[in-house]
Amino acid sequence: MPQIIRKDRIEEDGWTLLRPAADVEIATVELPATPILVPLALWQARREELLARATPVSVWLAANENPSAIADDLARLPLIAVDFPKFTDGRGYSIARSLRDRHGYRGEIRAIGDVQRDQLHYMRRCGFDAFAVRADHDIERALAGLKSFSDSYQAAVDEPLPLFRRRAQASGAAA
Q: pLDDT digits over 123-165, tens only?
């Protein structure tokens, strides 16, 4: 079973990621009886069928897809995965930030695809809390990379106050 990093721990991944080939008809995609992560197109085409399943289902978004497309269903989705088609594609960071800030999503946001150690700290700052590190990378080293930075200056999803405000609060001064 594949492993992921979730909440600063390495865990077995109980979800099956469905990545149908581009030439496969969405209506014919076989749905395993395990918890599944489906692409947005499959969710949109077979939503009622997926909601009626006895096992959990969630959605993954491609880097060019808008999280508003699932905004009405966020309460039903225990996790949202965001695909990084290549290491240098930063659109997924914006998707996670939008899910957290604009849509108020509090479930798990998982990075999938070309996910590497050097990205994890910044992904967490944008709202990701789980990472499916690329299979050819050492997941233990990736986990250690999450501890590379002890503090951040800027405000972000993981720390809404910038460092100067946190220091002012700690000293009792008004900022």
A: 998 999 999 999 999 999 999 888 776 666 676 777 777 778 8
φ/ψ of residue 108, rounded to 5: -75, 135
Cα–Cα separations (whole angstroms), residue 155 to 81, 116, 147, 161, 162: 23, 23, 18, 5, 4
Token duo for residue 71: 């905004």
Q: Where are the domains of the chain?
A: 3-149
pLDDT digits (tens, 9 = 90+) for 29-72: 999 999 999 999 999 999 999 999 999 999 999 999 999 999 99
> What CATH number does the domain located at 3-149 have?
3.20.20.70
The pTM (predicted TM-score) of the whole model is 0.87
Q: Which of 38, 50, 16, 21 is nearest to 132 (CA)?
A: 16
